[in-house]
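2024-03-11 09:14:02 INFO worker-7 job=invfold-0412 stage=load source=structure_tokens
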């Protein structure tokens, strides 16, 4: 499974509708409304690299209200359990 994190800038007055439209796209697992420089973060999970282009370039970028996107491909995942183990001081 390939995960892409997509930063989305949207028309401010349409953020909820844009988020719902993106969340409804096949390949999009989650959409978060966030504070800061970007408006939304979408998580795209697909089987093949080519599928990222189909989801992001062919569908997500064409959602009405999307102004721009920036896509980051994840190459390693760390779970909460992994992080707790990495920073454990061995004080059990």
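2024-03-11 09:14:09 INFO worker-7 stage=emit residues=92
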């Amino acid at each position: 499974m390939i995960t892409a994190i997509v930063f989305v800038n949207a028309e401010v007055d349409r953020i909820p509708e844009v988020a719902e439209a993106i969340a409804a796209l096949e390949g999009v697992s989650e959409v978060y409304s966030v504070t800061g420089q970007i408006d939304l973060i979408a998580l795209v999970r697909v089987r093949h690299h080519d599928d990222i282009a189909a989801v992001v370039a062919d569908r997500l970028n064409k959602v009405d209200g999307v102004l721009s996107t920036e896509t980051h491909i994840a190459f390693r995942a760390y779970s909460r359990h992994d992080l707790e183990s990495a920073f454990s001081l061995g004080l059990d």
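2024-03-11 09:14:09 INFO worker-7 stage=report msg="The mean pLDDT is 91."
2024-03-11 09:14:10 INFO worker-7 job finished
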